[in-house]
Write a structure and sequence with these properties.
Layout (H helix, E strand, L loop, with lengths): L3 H27 L15 H21 L3 H7 L8 H19 L6 E4 L3 H24 L2 H4 L2 H8 L21 H11 L3 E3 H28 L2 H8 L27
Antiparallel strand pairs: 1-2
């Protein structure tokens, strides 16, 4: 069993790997800096490359959702210390992404290409906005708790973990899943949309829509206050809710947990 210092170092390394992977993903999707981006030159037949890419996306989706489910956590924490559960999830997600980056097979082809300078600038701005929204959103709901550092830090200090209060800061008042909104902006805002990028964007969008249903099923089961929040606040697109006239119920301890 890991001691307190070992557990903290494990959590810290998992977090640093995540942050490096996040930065690499930005370059990978945006074709910036990284040695092999999403739109690198194809190296194998289209059909074979497509099957590999869909398989890689499938592996990530299964890992990302399965390990976030309560049933899996109940089993997993019999093998992994509870305090390191979140760090292990973060580590596994990072490794799944690294595998995808390494084995990804570009498909070639262009679906659209925006030439107008202003339109291109707008799309690049939306791309940056999406990545920024993802990062800012994690800090609004406690970035270090979401990625496991708070848990191992409290353990290092010999303190018990305390759940965070349920809050709806900033964009959470407009949509229930601003983090996913950020990913959609990041994945779809492309001045040059290749077939490769389109496959990635369509597949990840489908995954996001499925993941939201799984996540909200858990939240509705575990937190009664989420029912009212779900009625009042739209899922992904800001706008007046059909249930806006419902009274505002006070929130109880918990925050929306994003896989």
């Amino acid at each position: 069993m890991l001691g307190r210092i070992g557990t903290f170092l494990y959590g810290l390394i998992s977090y640093l790997l995540f942050f490096g992977t996040f930065l690499y993903a930005l370059g990978w999707v945006g074709n910036l800096v990284v040695p092999k981006s999403i739109d690198a030159a194809p190296t194998m037949p289209f059909g074979q490359a497509l099957l590999i890419d869909l398989g890689l996306l499938g592996v990530f989706a299964i890992q990302h959702s399965l390990m976030a489910r309560r049933g899996f956590k109940d089993w997993w924490t019999k093998l992994v210390p509870q305090v390191a559960e979140r760090s292990t999830y973060v580590l596994a997600s990072s490794l799944a992404m690294i595998v995808m980056f390494y084995y990804w097979q570009p498909l070639g082809g262009v679906v659209w290409q925006v030439e107008h300078p202003f339109a291109k600038m707008v799309l690049l701005g939306m791309f940056g906005f999406g990545w920024g929204l993802v990062l800012v959103t994690t800090f609004l709901i406690n970035h270090f708790d979401l990625f496991g550092l708070r848990q191992v830090w409290l353990h290092l200090l010999g303190k018990d973990y305390t759940p965070l209060a349920f809050t709806t800061p900033g964009p959470y008042k407009l949509v229930r899943h601003p983090l996913y909104v950020g990913w959609l902006f990041a994945f779809w805002s492309a001045p040059v949309m290749t077939v490769t990028h389109l496959v990635f964007a369509v597949t990840t969008t489908a995954y996001i829509l499925i993941a939201i249903q799984l996540e909200e099923r858990d939240l509705l089961r575990d937190h009664a206050e989420y029912h009212d929040y779900r009625r009042r606040v739209p899922m992904l697109i800001p706008g007046r809710s059909r249930h806006a006239h419902h009274p505002h119920h006070p929130h109880h301890p918990h925050h929306p947990h994003h896989s």
